[in-house]
Amino acid sequence: MASVMYALLLCLSAGALSVVQGEDPYLFFTWNVTYGTISPLGVPQQAILINGQFPGPNINSTSNNNIVLNVFNNLDEPFLLTWNGVQQRKNSWQDGTLGTMCPIAPGTNFTYRFQVKDQIGSYMYYPVTAMHRAAGGFGGLRINSRLLIPVPYADPEDEYTVMIGDWYTKSHTALKKILDSGRSMGRPAGVLINGKNAKGDGKDEPLFTMKPGKTYKYRVCNVGLKNSLNFRIQGHPLKLVEMEGSHTVQNTYESLDVHVGQCFSLLVTADKEPKDYYMVASTRFTKTVLTGKGIIRYENGNGPASPELPEAPVGWAWSLNQFRSFRWNLTASAARPNPQGSYHYGKINITRTIKIVNSASRVDGKLRYAVNGVSHVESETPLKLAEYFGVADKVFKYDTIEDEPPATVEDKITLAPNVVNQTFRDFVEIIFENHEKSIQSWHLDGYSFFAVAIEPGRWTPEKRKNYNLLDGVSRHTIQVFPKSWAAVMLTFDNAGMWNVRSEQPERRYLGQQFYVSVLSPARSLRDEYNLPETAQLCGIVKDSPKPPPYSS
To answer: Which Pfam family, just one, is annotated for this protein (predicted)?
Structure first.
């Protein structure tokens, strides 16, 4: 029996080679990143393709799988992918941010090696270099539950990944030049669903097909650049079952606001007249509403989709109320057998409160975005490498920002690498306060946090009485409405260097991000993996001898 269990099993599926041994299974991928020409809005433009695909291939994995992904950069610029929401436990070396890794140089390749440890759910990957995300290079990443772990709904007939996002017809290089010149990149030209927008001329091919009477799971992610999108399907209610790695209480919605960087899993039952229906994604909180459409076709159905699209909600009070309806499913098991609700986050004492205020201002006449008055600047040496090689003092200063924003946060901006020092395993409250007139979307790498409140106005300690301390959803991205605040709580128990960023690439590129350095005092393999042998070195550590590895 043992010899059977430890035998090498090879299976080929979805372009990935799966190797199953005594340890958790391995999935192997080879990706060729190239330029190509696409015309999703009728205008030919340069796109970034992965294995010739736009959007890129789906990664279909299961909890605890090891992913080995060899990326060949055939572009003319450095390139780097991040795995949005994958926690990279003990392994910020593979996080794919410019603060943790050297980008992949043109004409070279790099192999990512990471484990989707103790996670389930719907995620995505995208480029973090330059403005590459505006040209593609993104796709879906799903982590299925292990067969032994019960899922709180019946297996769907099939699962579909839906990448929605606003889109520019300007090239990524043109957009970068605009930002580098100190201007905003303006409004997008349209909205795409899986890289397309149905014309409605009767010639549109369906994005998805459904068998009458069957239920399907749609994994919907907003991979756009600027706008929150409202997602809906003609005549079909949406049952929310999972959000960014957490099973939710299964409420049903006519439509859902999906903010930039967020992912939802929805169950949709094909119980209507068998014909075509439109899947719709439209911009929210914009004067001019842009709409993207895609066809869902019933098998053996007869009849075109109705040109009358379901209406979207108006205003952000509706969106705030929808956020408040999201609840953690306390009885469901996620990646482990124990119920989600067995972790009582509301009973843990807060050891630190960090209040984050985003702002927009000008430095030497050029637009910059900042966090507590500091606009992050990328360093030639990744922050994590500088720290690991003992040369952090030559690259950045810790705690450039304080836990309380300065009174002049909206006026004065300092340009510098922005790194916050955080004690390992402390339980921390982070307040995101938005004084601007536009909605924000914040993401934290390496963790999930509990989204305990979003409210209008300014935050004060008295607002804690309004927190959801029982069943706030554990997730990695949270929106902050105009002139509002959001509160999240988490334990910083994952050693590494972790990016906190605006999910809107313009704001991230122009400085609205920072890093949290979480160092384990034990310097032990129990807390953090060693620098990988294959790690690329750059900047001032390029030719440095590697420090002694952690031994236990």
So the answer is: Cu-oxidase
Tens digit of each residue's pLDDT (9 = 90 or more) over 418-442:
999 999 999 999 999 999 999 999 9
pTM reported for the whole predicted model: 0.95
Residue 496, Ramachandran bin (φ over 0: left; ψ between -120 and 50: alpha; else beta): left
Q: Looking at the domain covering 158-325, what would its CATH class be?
A: mainly beta
Among 249, 194, 196, 195, which residue's Cα sits nearest to residue 219? Answer: 194
252: pLDDT strictly greater than 70: yes
Distances (CA, A) of 98 to 31, 325, 381, 384: 20, 36, 9, 9
Report pLDDT for 370: 97
Q: Which fold has domain 26-144?
A: Immunoglobulin-like (2.60.40)
Q: What are the tokens at 228?
A: 């929150």
CA 221 from centre of chain: 8
The fold for domain 345-518 equals Immunoglobulin-like (2.60.40)
What are the residue ranges spanned by the domains of the chain? 26-144, 158-325, 345-518
Positive or negative torsion for Cα 446, 452, 456, 461:
negative
How far apart CA 46 and CA 170 sit, in angstroms, is 9
Distance CA 39, CA 48 (A): 13
Phi first, then psi: what are they for 134, rounded to 5°? -75, -5
The per-residue pLDDT for range 472-526, each reduced to its tens digit, is 999 999 999 999 999 999 999 999 999 999 999 999 999 999 999 999 998 899 9
